[in-house]
């Protein structure tokens, strides 16, 4: 009877191992198909070896990040989805955020800020967390308007830069954030003065 239980145990272990291998193979196959058809007309061949390697996928994303950001993001998101605890998952998340930030238009800045926030949420203790928080501030700072016009972006930038100084006071980014804080405060003060002069003249 003991032998039967032992044999049954090993049989179940063998079945579990087979299922795990089958699951991994299916995941890799699906990944290959997603990357192949996910780019529309720009179909991309990817080997199972690349699909099963966080480093290889990340480097593939880096390769396309400037000439084809959309394709690059597809690879980089697969790093995050397939290897969420990997060092390259952190790098991939930052690379996606940076790719939006470089475009500088309003929509891309919103997406960049969202990606940087997700980075901090996913990797709160990462050495790159202060950089991500600083970049959130920069997405607003890049869009501030001169005094006399709407200062919403200035106020948002100010709030985000203050988080850098408060949450990461010893980071390299804290010094830059402090400079940006002073600039934002000067802009807001000048704006208030501008509005006051305007109403005084009226």
Mind explaining what this structure looks like?
Keywords: Cell outer membrane, Membrane, Signal. The protein is built from 9 helices and no strands. It is an all-alpha fold. Among the domains are: 50-126, Serine Threonine Protein Phosphatase 5, Tetratricopeptide repeat (Alpha Horseshoe); 143-202. The longest helix is centred in the N-terminal third of the chain and has 36 residues, at 2-37. The N and C termini lie far apart (100 Å). The model is unreliable at 24-28 and 35-41 (pLDDT under 50).
Mean pLDDT: 84
User: Can you identify the CATH class of the domain at 50-126?
Assistant: Mainly Alpha
- Which fold does the CATH topology of the domain at 50-126 refer to? Serine Threonine Protein Phosphatase 5, Tetratricopeptide repeat
Number of strands: 0
- What count of helical segments does DSSP give? 9
Strand content: under 5%
Radius of gyration: 24 Å
Helix fraction by DSSP (H/I, runs of at least 4): over 70%
Low-confidence stretches: 24-28, 35-41
Helix and strand composition category: mainly alpha
The succession of helices and strands, N to C, reads HHHHHHHHH
The largest β sheet comes out as: none
Inertia-based shape: elongated
CATH architecture of the domain at 50-126: Alpha Horseshoe
Rounded to the nearest angstrom, the distance between the terminal CA atoms is 100 Å
